[in-house]
Amino acid sequence: MNADLRAGWLYRTAALLGRLPWPCLKALADAIAWLWLRLDARESRVVRRNLELAYPELSAAERAALHPRVLRSTARQTFEMLRTWTRPPAENLARLRERHGQDLYDAALASGRGVIVAAPHFGNWELLNQWLAERGQIAIVYRPPDSPVVDGFLQRARGKENVRQVRAEGPAVRQLFKVLKDGGAVGILPDQQPKMGDGVFAPFFGVQALTMTLVNRLAERTGAIVLYGWVERLSDDLDFALHVEPAGPALADAAPVTAATAL
C-alpha cells in the first residue's frame, strides 16, 4: 500500500475516533497522560526538563505538582486537535465563545499590506487556522514531517477551503513573499526549531534557544503587518477564546537577534 493510501486510511481512522463523545476522548487522554507519567515516557521527561528550565524559581515540589497537569493538558490538546481536523469547520468555530481582536485582523487584511499571523504552539492552533480560513485565503507555513504518510494525513486534515499549505523549505518560501506583496495572509508557527543557518539564538525563558528568522525576513522585506494569534482553552468542555494582538515594531528590526528576541 503506497503512502497516499495509508494516509487516507489514517485520516478515516482519526475521523472515526474523533466522532466519539468528548467525555470519552477526555478520559482516554487522561489515561494516556497517566501512563506517560507512570512509565516516565519521553513526553514526561520533556515536560519535567521544560519545567526546570522555564520555572527555576519554583521549588521541586511545586514543579512536581505541575507535572501531571501539563501532561493531562497536552494529551487533551491532542484529542482537541483531532476533533478539529475531522469535524466541519462551522461546528468547530461555534466553540469560539469569545473573540478578541477579530476586527484587528480584518482591518490589517483590508489594508492591502499583507498580514503575517505568528501563531505559536499555544492553545488550539488548528482551530485558529480554521478561523483564519473563514476570513479568507490563508497560506499556512509548515515543516513537512519525515514520514510521507503523516504528511499526507496533514494535507487532508488541514486542506480545508481557503487554506494553502506551504512547505518551510527552499523555493516554496519564495511563494510567501508573493502572497504578502499581493496583500494576502500568511500563518506561521514561529516556535518551530529552524535548521542551523535559518535562525539565530535568542533568550527564551532565560535560555538561549535557536529561533527562526523567517517572520523577521518576511516583515522587513514586504512591510506586512505582523499579528500574534492564538486560541485559548476556556474550559475542559471544548470552550475556546480567540485572541489576536499586534506585534511590536521590533519584529521587523534589521538586526535578526533583536527581532528573534521580540518574537
From TrEMBL:
Cellular location(s): Cell inner membrane
Keyword check for Translocase: no
GO cellular component annotations of the record: plasma membrane
Cited Pfam families: Lip_A_acyltrans
One GO MF term: acyltransferase activity
One BP term from GO: glycolipid biosynthetic process
CDD domains linked: LPLAT_LABLAT-like
Keyword Transmembrane: no
The entry's keywords: Acyltransferase, Cell inner membrane, Cell membrane, Membrane, Transferase
NCBIfam families in alphabetical order: PRK08734.1
Protein name as annotated: Lipid A biosynthesis lauroyl acyltransferase
Organism for this UniProt entry: Stenotrophomonas panacihumi
